[in-house]
Amino acid sequence: MPGTIAPPDIELIVENRRVGGGGGRPPDGGDGGDDDYGRRGRGESPSPRRFSTGIAIGMVSILMFFMALASAFLVLRHNSGVWVTVRLPWILWVNTAVLLGSSLILERARLRLSHRDVSGFRKLWMVTTVLGFLFVAGQLVAWRQLVTQGVYIASNQASSFFYIFTGAHGVHLLGGVAALLFVLLHNFEKSQVSVSLAAEITSYYWHFMDGLWIFLFVLLYLGK
């Protein structure tokens, strides 16, 4: 009836509806969108871009280091009056072929993985790892061949650069071999990183070390 005053309990219900908003809004902290975001944030895998950026920064740093060495090599090669040419060991040609072959097999392994042939991937990936070890062993053989000729790291400027170039590259390549072993032996079922992403990032570094060796080998060959 007009002018009738609503009972206090009815006024309280109406007031609660106004404060809470019609439609049954969930209590604070229970918003569906925020909860989904929280779950996604905790369950998402790391962004591939983060790993790509990290390996790119590492490769740029390595490249700058070797470019500084190459610049010093070229300056001394043309300006030094005591430069003694080093006869490159023949096994360097074999080592180069081994490293090139390892890159080709690595890509074939990644192709097998893209076809979901895990067994074929692991076999080819293992071959790449073995070839990486063979390359490093071949570089040690090259050092031994120079030692038998009486050429040591302190013999002259050219020999110093040869040992520094091959030694520094070999150390960095062993880092790539360690990454190959990680992909081969790691249990990715319990990891936030997929095996395909790990293989892709590792391939970037391995091909980079392959290309870097070709550059160093040509530099040493033309500078002899």
Written overview of the protein:
There is one protein chain. With 224 residues, the chain is mostly helical. The chain has one domain: Four Helix Bundle (Hemerythrin (Met), subunit A) (Up-down Bundle). It has 7 helices and no strands. The longest helix has 32 residues, at 48-79. It is elongated.
Write the layout of secondary structure elements.
Layout: H1 8-20, H2 32-43, H3 48-79, H4 91-114, H5 118-148, H6 157-185, H7 195-222
Helix pairs in contact: 3-6, 3-7, 4-5, 4-7, 5-6, 6-7
Number of strands: 0
Q: How would you classify the helix and strand content by structural class?
A: mainly alpha
Strand content: under 5%
The amount of helix comes to: over 70%
- CATH arch. level architecture: Up-down Bundle
The top level CATH class name: Mainly Alpha
Distance, first to last CA? 111 Å
Q: Given the C-alpha coordinates, what overall shape results?
A: elongated
Average of pLDDT: 83
Largest sheet report:
none
CATH topology name: Four Helix Bundle (Hemerythrin (Met), subunit A)
The fourth-level CATH homologous superfamily is Cytochrome c oxidase, subunit III, four-helix bundle
Gist?
The protein is mainly α and 224 residues long.
Fill in the keyword field for this structure:
single chain, 224 residues, mainly alpha, Four Helix Bundle (Hemerythrin (Met), subunit A), 7 helices, 0% strand
